Amino acid sequence: MPDFPDALLLARIQFAFTVSFHFLFPAVTIGLASYLAVLEGLWLKTGREHYMDLFRYWIKIFALVFGMGVVSGIVMSYQFGTNWAVFSDRAGPIIGPLMAYEVLTAFFLEAGFLGVMLFGMRRVGKGLHFTATLMVALGTFMSAFWILSVNSWMHTPAGYAQNADGQFIAAGSWLAIVFNPSFPYRLVHTLSAAYLTTAFLVGGVGAWHLLKDRDNPRARLMFSMAMWMAAIVAPLQIVLGDLHGLNTLQHQPVKVMAMEGHFDSHPEGAPLILFGIPNSAEGRIDHALQIPKLSSLILKHDLDAPLAGLDTVPAADRPPVGIVFWSFRIMVGLGLLMAALGAASLLARWRGRLYDWRWLHRWALLMAPSGLVAVLAGWITTEVGRQPWTIHGLMRTADSVSPLAAPAVAASLVAFVIVYFAVFGTGVLYILKLMAKPPLLHEPAEPRIPERAAGTTPAAALQTDGGAPR
């Protein structure tokens, strides 16, 4: 019989499963919160009801995605104590304060203004409601800021020292910790990915409704705004990704070796391997399709620049090449398709056929989930590429796990899988049901909720016949 997986492997699978579920929800809420702020701002400026119709249409979806993101995030935080207690103990003096800042700034902002944003349209003034929408959007940005600062520090630790107990503590200014070497690149790359994810989701929904009724003005507006975002941000994202890759080459060169599939060093220029089958056992890429010296040109801006390979790295310090190699290509491939769709939309707009080219709408519909797949592939590239380290170069993943028995971790993993697919699967199906309905003229506002405390009765309702309430 096959050996039962050990606790370390099961804990890693569990965290990968929960973080993959969770990461999809913030990727949508970050972009959707900003999109809602733009819609409400344009409505206030122009008075066009179509903007408010789209605001009311998407705010229902935003509320559901936001709720699922919060719940899945809370579950993740508990795993630091249950499955990764050693990591929590040693890195807690650095990670703990940064996570606390995320709660005190981002979560408090979101929680404080979310109710006004969702249910306050008829209860507060337009200016205050727009302010609440802006604060929720700012809160999603601040949440990404602090979480990515924590994650980036684990990739490129800076500004730390170690005490007598082996704990990582701040050494001087916290600015070196917060703004560690990879953080600015990771922040802008992830935020732009979130905006693109939302753009293609909105564009896909707009395309779906245009295929059913190309004269729906709200579907037209939705699709047009999404395609503008795709045309502008997708090429920018490619540039930001290149800058992030160069930063990774400087601070985590082994990850780039795995991404590129460079098992061997290339002293006179490295090829760009487009596709192939990584063979870690033999240390090569089987059936490689490659372009000579192009990798050196991209990474070093010199065709003949030497690039080191995994043959210079001990086997124990290498990440799983196959996973990183393919997840990176999925991310890049989808990014190129996004840029191509944005360019096609510009051509259609120039030809005056943005709402008439059915093939363009079908393409946009197929690309609707592409942002979600791309951010997940990018996250896998980043995190699996860091292995075997939890804190790069300082603390191994094998040394970070709690002293748990494998059956206990396996039981909780099975429970997570069942509950997640049941709860979040139901939520996703309901969101798809909402998206399948077209945005309507005078789209219904939020559902009615009681305007008075329980037990009180408005005087106008106490109309009686002969002294008895009717």
Structural account:
This protein has helices spanning 7-46, 49-82, 85-119, 126-155, 175-178, 183-212, 217-251, 253-260, 294-300, 321-350, 358-366, 370-386, 406-436, and strands spanning 160-162, 168-170, 272-279, 284-291, 389-391, 395-396, 464-465, 468-469. It has 470 residues and is mainly α.
Q: What features would you highlight for this structure?
A:
two-stranded antiparallel sheet, 13 helices, two-stranded antiparallel ribbon, about 5% strand, about 65% helix, mainly alpha, about 475 residues, disordered C terminus
Topology:
Layout: H1 7-46, H2 49-82, H3 85-119, H4 126-155, E1 160-162, E2 168-170, H5 175-178, H6 183-212, H7 217-251, H8 253-260, E3 272-279, E4 284-291, H9 294-300, H10 321-350, H11 358-366, H12 370-386, E5 389-391, E6 395-396, H13 406-436, E7 464-465, E8 468-469
Antiparallel strand pairs: 1-2, 3-4, 5-6, 7-8
Radius of gyration: 25 Å
Summed over residues and divided by their number, the pLDDT gives a mean of 87
Number of helices: 13
Poorly predicted residue ranges: 447-470
Report the order of strands and helices.
HHHHEEHHHHEEHHHHEEHEE
Helix content: 55-70%
> How much strand?
5-15%
Global structural class: mainly alpha
Tell me about the biggest sheet? 2 strands, antiparallel
How many β-strands, per DSSP?
8
- Describe the strand arrangement of the main beta sheet, using strand numbers: 1-2
User: What best-fitting shape do the alpha-carbon axes yield?
Assistant: globular
Cα(first) to Cα(last) distance is 75 Å
Give the gist of this structure.
With 470 residues, the chain is mainly alpha-helical. It has helices at residues 7-46, 49-82, 85-119, 126-155, 175-178, 183-212, 217-251, 253-260, 294-300, 321-350, 358-366, 370-386, 406-436, and strands spanning 160-162, 168-170, 272-279, 284-291, 389-391, 395-396, 464-465, 468-469.
